[in-house]
Amino acid sequence: SYNDVLGKRVGTDLKEGKVTLPLIYVLENTGDKYKAYIEKVVTKQRITKRDFERVRSIIEKTGGIAYTLAATEDHLDKAKKYLDNFPSSRYKTALLELADYMLKREM
Known about the structure:
Elements: H1 2-15, H2 21-29, H3 32-42, H4 49-61, H5 64-83, H6 90-106
Helix pairs in contact: 2-3, 2-5, 3-4, 5-6
């Protein structure tokens, strides 16, 4: 399920101190309370399961997931339109299929 994928990604990214698009969206579009908490968690040496669950909940609650999915879809649509400029080939077909796969994987 998407939550399984999101959970694994958010957990891995948080442990590695990575700030991803959903986190950037939350940091730029929410109040100081959430922002301060997320900044604290991202800079921690050890992130607890409770921290992880709360950050994930904040991302879901504040629209970070929806924003990221919409941005992904937009970028993939643009990429596919650029491919329209190229003649049909197995390479073009492979790239179009890859874009479709990536979108389905994110949803």
